[in-house]
Task: structure prediction
Amino acid sequence: MDPPEHRSYRSLISQRFTPRALQRIKQQVDSIADEILDGVMEGGAHAETDFVATVSALLPIWVIAEMLGVPRSDWELLFHWTNRTIGAADPEYREEGKTPRETVDAARLALFHYFNDMTEDRRKSPRDDLVSILANSEIDGEPLPPFELLSFYLLLVVAGNETTRNATSGGCSP
Ligand code: HEM
Result:
């Protein structure tokens, strides 16, 4: 998307990504980090852990899920859909009996259905989360068209999953 359209879309939620706004959710992020580290410590203080699987793959997606307003019970679901959307070429993520393309399509469709339902819910009862903002936003006096709206959620989920996970994992390499 190019300006000026891009600017209009971006400005809908950019305020939620400022240092001050993120300070407001520090408590939630701290509690997510605590939960992850408690999981790591389950094996005891000297246990070995797979850092990617137990720490860096979880933190970013859980934080963006919290910011979007996805309930805790569905974070795992979101994690699987986004892994398949991005990593379908990897046999670890590809759905059995499906080609990579079919895996991506199925995951994206499931994610779209999920956020479509969530959009309807937040239009009826808005909360203090990103889905409520986007679901109730207007551009030029009109709600966001369905495909643009669902793609916005997908962008956030994918960006919130892959990038920071890889930066953290790479940053830990000897
Ligand atoms: C180490 C972590 C990250 C890296 C290296 C990274 C890198 C990038 C890069 C290079 C772009 C393209 C910028 C451009 O061409 O204009 C981008 C865009 C974007 N990123 Fe990230 N990103 C990271 C984390 C995140 C996270 C955690 C989120 C959200 C939860 C996110 C959301 C976005 C969004 C929404 C865009 C599109 C922005 C726009 O077009 O206005 N990113 N990112």
The longest strand covers residues 138-139. Residues 136 and 142 are 10 Å apart (CA to CA). The two ends are 39 Å apart (CA to CA). The mean pLDDT is 93.
